[in-house]
Amino acid sequence: MRIHLTNVFVDDQEKARHFYTDVLGFVTKHDVPVGADRWLTVVAAGDPDGPELLLEPSGHPAVGPYKAALFADGIPAASFAVDDVRAEFERLSGLGVRFTQEPVAAGPVVVAVLDDTCGNLVQLMQTA
């Protein structure tokens, strides 16, 4: 068993596509119209056949309160592995990304948390 697809709920799919591709560095895998929305997935640039992240519209009534509660409590909706959290923090900060938690050692990992501009917090994690 392996992870094939997971999702984050986003307030605006086009804004999310821009952030996840142009800022974070993922690449678009699928962008298919589905009514007023899209089946919009991204993958790691170096792993085009790897796990996909669905940038899913936040339209369902339960999603708004769920996302707001996670965000208010500082709980990331997703976690991405990086080779060097501090280097990514510097790179992304230089691009104007807002971090809610700067890099910090937490046992065997170094983590930082950023705001994806689409209603979610995202954790970056480096294994020490």
Explain the overall architecture.
The chain is of the alpha/beta class and 128 residues long. Helix content is 24%, strand content 41%. The chain has helices spanning 13-23, 63-72, 85-94; strands spanning 5-10, 27-34, 37-43, 52-57, 78-81, 99-106, 109-115, 121-127. The strands form 2 sheets. A 4-stranded mixed β-sheet has the order 1-4-3-2, covered by helices on one side. It has a 4-stranded mixed β-sheet with strand order 5-8-7-6. Strand 3 (37-43) and strand 4 (52-57) form a beta hairpin. The chain is globular, with a radius of gyration of 15 Å. The model has no long low-confidence stretch (mean pLDDT 97).
At a glance:
The protein has 128 residues and is an alpha/beta fold. Helix content is 24%, strand content 41%. It has helices at 13-23, 63-72, 85-94; strands at residues 5-10, 27-34, 37-43, 52-57, 78-81, 99-106, 109-115, 121-127.
Largest sheet data: 4 strands, mixed
Radius of gyration: 15 Å
> What string, H for helix and E for strand, traces the elements in order?
EHEEEHEHEEE
- Widest sheet: strand ordering: 1-4-3-2
| Total beta strands | 8
Could you estimate the helical fraction of the residues in percent? 10-25%
Low-confidence stretches: none
Structural class: alpha/beta
Strand content: 35-45%
Write down the overall geometry: globular
Mean pLDDT: 97
Number of helices: 3
| First-residue to last-residue Cα separation | 26 Å
